[in-house]
Specification:
Length: 203
């Protein structure tokens, strides 16, 4: 089933389940080559979530702030190419949600161990906000906070489970959002962790 969460956003429940084995093993390949690391924000705080990327562009954060880079700052080398299984899934999900022609150039991989969270924020480092953001949840469930256009707006809580895909675009593209602390648990595929992939057309 699928559910509209706002005028431009759709939750595609269990959309990725058929592809999930291939996707998960390709994600494992990427993170073996391109280490997950806890980035630091411009304010000097270390994020609890561990991050890496694949695709032409990768999202990075350091004391200078957030941006997209072609080279992994840990190695000085390009990010791993986006595996075909990942690119295909993102395009299919975007199309199913009403955003045909989506060609992601960036895939951010976030690993949430138990207790990790992401505070309310907006995604505003991409060139063209007309393209949606597509995200896939794997492993342990999490409560996603979906807010408004101001940080102080009240938010709704949305349960995200293994295989769920969300697509965010149009008038919802700049809404504040975050993830509550991941609770302890054991997932049959991912173990004691949640992995979130987000695809974007960043450049
Ligand atoms: C709603 N990640 O990486 S993905 C992020 O679960 C991020 O790792 C979260 O927020 C995670 O920036 C949530 C869902 C998501 C991504 C982008 C959005 C929701 C969004 C952009 C606008 C509105
Ligand atoms: Fe975000």
């Amino acid at each position: 089933w699928s559910e509209h969460l706002g005028p431009g956003s759709v939750l595609l429940h269990a959309f990725a389940l058929q592809a999930v084995d291939a996707v998960y093993s390709d994600v494992q390949q990427v993170i073996q080559q391109s280490k997950l690391r806890q980035m630091v924000t411009a304010g000097g705080y270390q994020m609890s979530v561990s991050t890496t990327n694949c695709g032409e562009l990768g999202w990075v954060s350091d004391l200078k702030g957030y941006r997209y880079e072609r080279l992994d700052p840990l190695t000085g080398l390009p990010w791993q190419p986006m595996p075909e299984s990942l690119e295909r899934l993102a395009k299919q999900a975007a199309e199913a949600a009403g955003y045909p022609g989506f060609e992601p150039d960036a895939c951010l991989i976030n690993r949430y161990d138990v207790g990790c969270k992401m505070s309310l924020h907006q995604d505003r480092n991409e060139k063209d906000y007309r393209w949606p953001v597509v995200s896939l949840s794997l492993g342990l469930p999490a409560i996603f906070m979906f807010g408004g256009d101001e940080r102080s707006d009240k938010y709704s809580n949305i349960l995200l489970e293994h295989g769920d895909i969300m697509v965010w675009g149009g008038p919802d593209r700049m809404r504040f959002h975050g993830v509550k602390q991941v609770k302890p648990g054991e997932h049959p595929v991912c173990g004691q962790t949640r992995i979130n992939l987000t695809w974007r057309k960043a450049g």
